[in-house]
Amino acid sequence: MSTNNLSYNDQGGTDSAVEVGQETTPTSSNAGAGFGLFSVDFKKNDDLKEMLESNKESLKLEAMKRVVGLIAKGKNASELFPAVVKNVASKNIELKKLVYVYLVRYAEEQQDLALLSISTFQRALKDPNQLIRASALRVLSSIRVPIIVPIMMLAIKEAASDMSPYVRKTSAHAIQKLYSLDQDQKDLLIEVIEKLLKDKSTLVAGSVVMAFEEVCPDRIDLIHKNYRKLCNLLVDVEEWGQVVIISMLTRYARTQFTSPWKEDGVFDEHSERAFYESDEEKTRNEPEAKPYMMDPDHRLLLRNTKPLLQSRNTAVVMSVAQLYWHLAPKNEVSIVTKSLVRLLRSHREVQYIVLQNIASMSIQRKGMFEPYMKSFYVRSTDATHIKSLKLEILTSLANEANISTVLREFQTYVKSQDKEFAAGTIQAIGRCATNISEVTDTCLNGLVLLLSNRDETVVAESVVVIRKLLQTQPTQHSDIIKHMAKLFDNITVPMARASILWLMGEYCERVPKIAPDVLRKMAKSFTSEEDIVKLQTVNLAAKLYLTNSKQTKLLTQYILNLGKYDQNYDIRDRTRFIRQLIVPNDKNGALSKYAHRILLAPKPAPLLESAYKDRDRYQLGTLSHTINTKASGYLELSDWPAVAPDQSVRNVEVIEPVKIHHFIFPSTAHPTPALHQGWSWSTLSPKLQINFATDAESRVENSSQSSEESDESSSQSEKSSSESESDSEKKKRKTKTPLQKKTVKPTAKDGPYLSKCYQPTFCSSDLFIFSLILSVCPPVYSALSPLSLSFPLQVSGPAFVPEKSHDLLHRMTGKGLSAQYQFPRQPCLYQPTMVSVQISLTNTSDHPLEQIHIGDRSPTGLNIHCFNTVECLEPEASVTVFMGIDFNDSTQAANFQLCTKEDHFSVSIQPAVGDLFLPITMTELDFRKEQGKLLGMNESSATITMAAENMTSQPISRPVATVANLGVVPSGQDDIHRFAGKTASSGAVVLVTVELRESSTALITINTEKSVMGSMLLRDLKQALAQA
Q1: Rounded CA gap, 47 and 49, in Å?
Q2: Which of 99, 362, 732, 895 could form a disulfide linkage to 396, CB 3.0–4.6 angstroms apart?
Q3: Helix (H, G, I), strand (E, B) or coil at 795
Q4: CA–CA dist 215, 188 (Å, integer)
């Protein structure tokens, strides 16, 4: 019924009808119009339901846009859930995205209906579109039903290994939701967090650290290996993630590093003085003390967070400020001052938080903000709470040098129309008088003048502050007490009257003539006074009875009789107690002896302190610091360890990639031993030598001698296999047609251009020799295999290299520059994670093209190793160059600019999924072991129909090798063919099985962690094998 009860505003006009998706139609009945305001519309959103159940995708899409618009406006669209959830399996990407947005909002409310679509969400987790995969996981984690916890756990594990960083980020968000639903999954979730912490994507870092803080903030051991990576990624992480990471690293640093605030140590860590100063000056000026040497990882954190002080996000700046406050040496904390002052230009909510933190910081280190004192002057447009905080800071910054300026500023604030602020200013003056003895008399005189102010609030606060100040020097200020007594009749504020009465009673011996007269006046008005004034009147009467009983004995008895029958029980109790204490009789004779010592005992002077003095027990920038109370979920900063823990726990073993091209380019001074005992530099054609030498000369010059020499034993063991591969390759080469390249034979007049202008090209024999040389180097990449494997991966030579090239730049578009590219399917020379790309550049114009190079690239984070700049390319000449591209296991195109001296051309390289693999050598036993680890959501399969003549080994291996760069795994069964490879970027294993069955059918099975790549590879293999 709640969905049908509409308010007046929901039915009152056409605008409202449009908002809820209701078509407005004119009514012919006057009665219907007359009673429309009080009728209930049972047809609400019917038009949207009809559109969502329509067969037209355009109507459904329009309906979903209107539904999402309702949600954005805060309208309740939950009744549309059944109609919306029917479209969750739509093939329209835009419609599916909107449906998932709706389901994320209402899945928790409509759990039963959402559970009916679980299978659809599971299928969507393998969708090629990363947004759909992420949205499906988000919806799945929003269904908070314990029965689907195993499904959520499996989906999170799968998403954590997704090729898209956006999906991995979503999996980190889902971890927190699953943990709040079932905390028994903590151990499994910690495993996923540990895996995601190793992710190198800046998009994932902030989310996984947030999951770490929610699930296992005490597992500091998970951060050790990732500490340096997080510090280095910090600048590129999104702003929300920066705040979370900085907060976590602050807690981590307090447990792993020693205090940089040691008083007995001399700090000589990277300071300019320590850098530029001579040894003689050091020994002459510095005392003999043990120097404090900061841990390099401690310094790394401070150095990498410092640039974030320039961030436009105030939360990031505040996080860095608190990090420096809690971790940096005292002489470096001041670098955050200017950034914090800059934040005071923001809106008042930001000002409030920043000023609170500055107030806490200024108490301990006044010198930080003293140069920026003018930034804390109060403006007339400031809110009261902002004024109070600025007043607090000005009071803390006051010293002997600037007190005159501060007091002049306070004189203006006292005249403010804001009474609360004016009262706070008077309290600030009292604090200044207490802290700086030189201005105590000046402040007292100023406060006495305020007693004549027309504003009762100002007068009352002045009396209270004067009372506190007089307690510090009572003997010197009897005149002020007399002056206050004269003004007593004109003061009406209860707290002020009570303060004057307390002063009269406390120092009644110094004003013996005035105090009894004040008591006489109070006896007349006792019954009409406030309770606090009555209590002080009783105290004054008791003290005068003890010191001047002749004049005040009757007055005291009269006041005690009035208090005995007062309506307030506190006053009645105080009156009975005072009577028994000061009036001796037979019962209380012993107690009355001590009355003088009880009532007239010397009282310690009150301490006028800042309200922010004790807030340093909470971490700056936290909610607990703001409210001055420990909030739920607050994690306290630990004390510095006395002895630094072992810093080697943060060391990460980094295996430096061996530069294989050092085997190919020997220098005359260091000859290479026959290129793995079988090949020599002379084996290459002269054209190949020139291309390799010009393209890699600069990289070889600075390389070490050790990387040029190969391992003798590994070379010996691989010699036979590489020779057998070379024989098969030679047979294939004889049947292939040479690459069609237009070349210009160099003549005598072309000689001078050989050092500057590139003319030679690759032929197919050169490409074969190049492939053959690389095929003898598998052990180099075996060390880079994933650590989770039970055996080392050995990259083998490609089973087939397609000769098909793709147009990169047409000669008409390139103004004479033509470019084609192909994938040689070889390990990249530059980085193991890159895919090698061969580019052929041809000058079809009638003039030389100069300075051909790679320009801007997209996306921004794309990792490309560019070829060396081609200084000059003569007309009709060609040159072949190599470049490396890290596609990050994605078929997303690599966009960049191919530039000449005069022009820039936008080009794009689109890889097929099969070109992103590297073939690996694997036994059948190892294949089965790895396949057993990659089941469930990591497995994709399909059945195809093949021609009967193709149901043999050769017709199956050839199409598979054509589609994907995979290695053949020896199989003991004739009807099962296995292929293995790994992704170039992440090294994830890819296993392909083709099982021949009866009736000319075959089952294709692909096992890999990269489920999206597996689906795309399965599609290509189905098409290739079906057409073979």
Answers
A1: 5
A2: 362
A3: strand
A4: 11
CA distance 514 to 488: 11
Q: Which CATH number describes the domain made up of 806-911?
A: 2.60.40.1150
DSSP assignment of 944-1009: EE--GGG-SHHHHHHHHHHHS--EEEP-S-TTEEEEEEEETTT--EEEEEEEE-STTEEEEEEEES
**Most confident range, picked from 17-21, 111-115, 311-315:** 311-315
Q: 723-746 burial string, b = 16+ CB within 10 Å, else e?
A: eebbeebeeeeeeeeebeeebeee
| CA nearest to 986, candidates 349, 163, 308 | 163
Contact between 982 and 959 under an 8 Å Cβ cutoff? The reply is no
Q: How many whole angstroms separate alpha carbon 319 and alpha carbon 84? A: 42
Q: Are 819 and 907 in contact (CB under 8 A)?
A: yes
Q: Mean pLDDT across the stretch 106-123?
A: 78
Interaxial angle between packed helices 314-327 and 296-305, expressed in degrees from 0 to 180 and rounded to the nearest 10? 150
> Any idea where the domains of the chain sit in the sequence?
45-255, 479-601, 806-911, 917-1025
Q: How far is CA 618 from the centre of its chain?
A: 22
pLDDT of residue 291: 67
Rounded to a whole number, what is the distance in angstroms from the first to the last CA of the chain?
63
Which tokens in the block code for residue 987? 């090294």
User: Of the candidates 165, 164, 108, which has an alpha carbon nearest to the alpha carbon of residue 138?
Assistant: 108
Q: Residue 945: how many CB atoms within 10 A of its CB?
A: 10
Say which CATH class 45-255 falls into.
mainly alpha
> Hunting for tokens 């009152």 — which residue is that?
12
Within 20-105, strands assigned E span none
According to DSSP, the residues that pair with 994 across neighbouring strands are: 977, 1004
- Alpha-carbon distance of 121 to 127, in angstroms, equals 10
Contact 207, 241 (CB under 8 A): yes
Pairing, β 870-873 against β 976-983: unpaired
Report the alpha-carbon distance of residue 791 to residue 991 in Å, rounded.
15
Q: Which residues contact 928 (CB under 8 A, 6 or more apart)?
A: none
Average pLDDT of span 429-455: 82
Using 50, 70 and 90 to split pLDDT, how confident is the model at 145? confident
Average pLDDT score, the chain: 77
Which amino acid is present at 795? V
Q: Determine phi and psi for 846, rounding to 5 degrees.
A: -105, 15
From CA 340, how far away is CA 344, in angstroms rounded?
Answer: 7
For the stretch 448-479, what's the b/e string if a residue is b when 16 or more beta carbons lie within 10 angstroms of its beta carbon?
Answer: bebbeeebeebbbbbbbbbbbbbbbebeebee
How many angstroms separate the Cα of 134 from the Cα of each of 102, 173, 189, 724, 1012? 14, 10, 18, 47, 13
Residue type, 495: M
* Structure-token pair, residue 382: 């400031």
CA distance 271 to 262: 17
Burial-class residue 859 by CB neighbours within 10 Å (0-12, 13-18, 19+): exposed
Residue type, 557: Q
* pLDDT tens digits, one per residue of 40-95: 444 567 788 888 888 888 888 888 898 889 888 888 888 888 888 888 778 888 88
Pick from 774, 765, 714: which is nearest to 739 by CA? 765
855 membership: H or E segment, kind and range: strand 849-858
The second-level CATH assignment, the architecture, of 917-1025 is: 2-Layer Sandwich (3.30)
**Who's near 185: CB < 8 A, 6+ residues apart?**
149, 153, 178, 179
Structure-token pair, residue 41: 């519309």
Give the model confidence (pLDDT) of 832-868 as tens digits: 889 999 999 999 988 899 999 988 877 666 788 888 8
Nearest 5°: CA angle at 803, between 800 and 806?
130
**Alpha carbon distance 134, 169 (integer Å):** 9
Q: Helix or strand or coil: residue 895?
A: strand
Report how far residue 129's alpha carbon sits from residue 251's, in angstroms, rounded to the nearest whole number.
38
What confidence category does residue 159 fall into, taking pLDDT thresholds of 50, 70 and 90? Answer: very high
